[in-house]
Amino acid sequence: MVEANDLRPIVCKFDGTATANADRLRRVRDIVRSDPLRRFVVVSAFGKYTHSDHDCTSLLMLCDAHVRLGYRFDPFFKPIAERFRTIVRDLQLEVDIQRLLDEVEAGIMTQAEGNKCYAASRGEYLMAVVVANFLGWPFIDATEVIRFSADGALDSAATNAAIAERLSQVEHAVLPGFYGSLPDGRLKTFPRGGSNITGALVAGSVHAARYECWTDAAGLVCPAPGAEPVGRMTYAAFKALPEGGVKIFPAEALAVVQETGLLLNLRDTDRPEHPGTLIVPDHRALQ
After folding, report:
1. Alpha-carbon distances of 265 from 108, 128, 240, 250, rounded to whole Å
2. Which fold has domain 10-284?
3. I want to staple 181 with a disulfide (CB 3.0 to 4.6 A). Which of 108, 143, 146, 159 is the partner?
């Protein structure tokens, strides 16, 4: 998949299924440590791990909606706080998670009349702080490197330059996905699934050997339920999948990947030994 003498970094993005609880985060750690070229990690907020569970971002958006209407949001923030406290306790981390949770809770209140993106982004922020502590790597906030213009559009040139400059200063780093900053310092989020975009931007800016997106089996390209994932396909073939493959990987993120000519590797967190599906530029189809 990658030539043996290719020493360029690998960028890994772990989705909400991979960050759902302490056991899954231990798996994340093992995956990252299994290859020294996996130097930069982008994480999503925690997702569901039972059918009756709620993902972090949906709960945060409910918090924001309730505070804007003048209602209490405690019932929606409580499960978020409990999940993060449990993860930190189970992993025995030296993170003052209660202080961070208090800051987020207060921020949701104070941002109610202003930035609607603040609440939605806090799951990624908290998870990246936790994962950075767990791996013993630097935490780099996305506001430092993901830049939006005043009209809310991604400023690709400024973003690429900021990522390249900042990550050249560190050997490893963990970054939150999904958000960045506007020129006035306010937070701005990508559409849902935007952590894939963050990961693609990071991978392109550091000229990564490949961009690995770690998810569950439902996020892989399989010819039929229960079948082995397709091993290799081109961007064109991927986009030709039903709904253009966007259920697996958002179109906005694929556009970034395609623009930079990255190798996109979709991997199964539950089967890290499996090579998953490699999406390659069309001109590399026969290589």
Report:
1. 36, 21, 17, 14
2. Carbamate kinase (3.40.1160)
3. 143
Question: What are the phi and psi torsion angles at 188 (to 5°)?
Answer: -140, 130
Indicate the helix (H) or strand (E) that contains 119.
Answer: helix 117-135
In whole angstroms, what is the distance from residue 280 CA to residue 257 CA?
Answer: 10
**Segment 174-223, tens digit of pLDDT:** 999 999 999 999 999 998 789 999 999 999 999 999 999 998 876 678 77
Question: pLDDT tens digits for 58-106?
Answer: 999 999 999 988 899 999 999 999 999 999 999 999 999 999 999 999 9
- Segments of the chain assigned E as strands: 10-14, 38-43, 173-176, 179-181, 187-189, 210-215, 232-234, 264-268, 277-280
Q: How far apart are CA 198 and CA 163, in angstroms?
A: 10
3-class secondary-structure state, position 278 = strand
* Token duo for residue 182: 């506007």
Which residue reads 């070229």 in tokens? 37
Tens digit of each residue's pLDDT (9 = 90 or more) over 129-138: 999 999 999 9
Residue type, 271: R
